[in-house]
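PT: before anyone asks, these are the final sequences, not the draft ones from last week. 229 residues across everything. Please model them as a single complex and drop the result in this thread when it's through.
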Amino acid sequence: AQTVTQSQPEMSVQEAETVTLSCTYDTSESDYYLFWYKQPPSRQMILVIRQEAYKQQNATENRFSVNFQKAAKSFSLKISDSQLGDAAMYFCASSNYGGSQGNLIFGKGTKLSVKP
Amino acid sequence: GAGVSQSPRYKVAKRGQDVALRCDPISGHVSLFWYQQALGQGPEFLTYFQNEAQLDKSGLPSDRFFAERPEGSVSTLKIQRTQQEDSAVYLCASSQGVRLEQFFGPGTRLTVL
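LR: through. Structure below.
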């Protein structure tokens, strides 16, 4: 079975600083994607960044970047120049496409607080 | 354009009641997913539709849960004889295709008393 583990229930960062959220996953598939989703309080989940497993280059989206270590099955999210609006629950997720419908498998989430 | 919408946003049910949760996906999105998010947990997959066909219902926790998407657009998740353990946020997501980004709705928070 495919699993996603987030070992940090809560993290805190000072505004304008950098924070890294950890995620490990387990899959036997070769064709999969990895995602980070943001879920602000009482607001809907939005995609932050995604990584295709066959690509070696780490994905980046403005202040958000990932460190994808395929052999170690690690997929961490780095947020640079943290802003108050970054405060939210962050979920790491994976999705298999080899013979499946592409449903997402989520970790339990990391609650990120940003201090002014 | 409009995003994914869900109604009602909040639902309180007495144990044993039936409930129906609605999802309006983004227009033209063929793929539709339902997830259940218990308090303090990540979402868990329930079921998947491609157009009107329910291709995967492996995540439905019991036969009290039933989902449909008869015309390939709006979907309804029905829970019969609700139990306290059904209390959760039910999320709907849609996408243009399997490998494409899933857009989530705001969810329906179900509380079973």
